[in-house]
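Box S1 | Example of a co-folding query
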Amino acid sequence: MIKKKYLILGAGPAGLTLANMLLDRGEEDFLLLEKEDVAGGLCRTEYVGSNPVDIGGGHILDVRSQRVCDYMFRFLPKDKWNIFDRDSKIRFQDQFMGSPFESHIWQLPVEDQVRYIKSIAIAGCNLGTPKPEKFVDWIRWKLGDEIAENYMLPYNRKMFTSNLDSLGTYWLEKLPDVSFEDTLMSCLEHRFYGKHPGHARFYYPDREGYGDAFILMQKRLGDKFLGGVRVTSLDVENRVVNEEFTADHIISTIPWTDIEEYKGLEDEYISMIGRLKYSGIQVDYHKQPLPFETKAHWIYYPQECYAFHRILVLFNFSPRSEGYWTETNLERVDMTGSPDIKSGPGADLSYKNIYAYPHNTLDKPEIMAKLLPRMEKSRITGLGRWGEWQHYNSDVVMEKAMDLAQKL
Ligand SMILES: Cc1cc2nc3c(=O)[nH]c(=O)nc-3n(C[C@H](O)[C@H](O)[C@H](O)COP(=O)(O)OP(=O)(O)OC[C@H]3O[C@@H](n4cnc5c(N)ncnc54)[C@H](O)[C@@H]3O)c2cc1C
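Box S1 (continued) | Returned holo structure for flavin-adenine dinucleotide
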């Protein structure tokens, strides 16, 4: 049995940051276990020639947290990154309109503008009806039936799950905040009104992919990083992993649902873990140029007849690269691309991520509010996108890992 003070499960941004923070304060008695041979998790990059492919989909570094940016720049220095003002588009009715939809309605024909504005005007939030608890109802309540039917619901069905009825509303601060007044102002003045919740400005490396910074974090850890070890069993009471590793304190960043066998954990918690839902995506890289010109960094595709839901226009944020990536929900990979964009078949690189989106189901807050304290009682801490089952971006999980390192 290998015994350590700390055992960290999963070497994505959360596990890597925690491990590096422990090293910073002189702590050597820990091990980081990872099922892949290399670190990076959803933020990992592979290469086709000199073209980076972020295998977990488009990954950019938000400028918001100076602490996180400084930490990233320790590994990949600041002069190796470019900074961008977000340019995202929606492919809609044979044109590319700006995003978010509700503040770019002015780019549609006038008769459509009238239809959308009328629909928002009678949406529940503008009539003062109570806020619904289900995602689908909330979208109609906030944005009106027209945007719900033509953009938001199809897009979210494509990205997350065909079963949108299972989702709650408690996580919707992730969506842009655009009021009815903002929509009207944008139509009058033909410019964006409202608030982007994230990624309004972002960094992307000049030559490398996003994942290269995480490989450098892994390298600093030396033999404290142990790749090729998939965690399959967890003895909660004794803090034993795979009957081979044990620690005074375990920090888990891996999906609770990926652990096949729990020992010493009461049935009610095992059943809660079974109720946690998630979905996966496939990322496909095509080296060939796009068949149209665009300055957008990425483009959303709400059309349900096309397999993929988003394309990342690689050369618009990685200036020496060519081609584009598509992101497709694993439920939809057998479908075809659009007339002008290929997705899976014929790709120069395809990568399947079984775990991409933790689902914000109606019962998830209650499950996690019980599961995390139960694990904590046995000195097992959940951290990151999967440990906390939250839609956290990488900057958020790195910040949380920094905070946890200070507490440990
Ligand atoms: C399509 C998409 C786009 C995104 N875009 C952005 C973006 O632009 N900017 C941004 O900041 N964030 C973005 N994110 C979010 C970002 O990917 C996550 O915030 C980040 O990867 C979370 O880090 P983590 O360490 O918590 O989890 P992960 O990155 O998922 O790492 C978990 C690690 O655990 C390992 N693991 C899993 N199971 C086991 C097991 N049983 N045993 C051992 N190891 C295991 C995995 O291999 C992985 O290395 C995006 C996510 C997706 C899906």
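Residues 9-15, 33-36, 41-43, 56-60, 62, 230-231, 253-255, 258, 281, 327, 356-357, 384-386, 392-395, 397 surround flavin-adenine dinucleotide (CB under 6 Å). Residues 88-198 form one domain.
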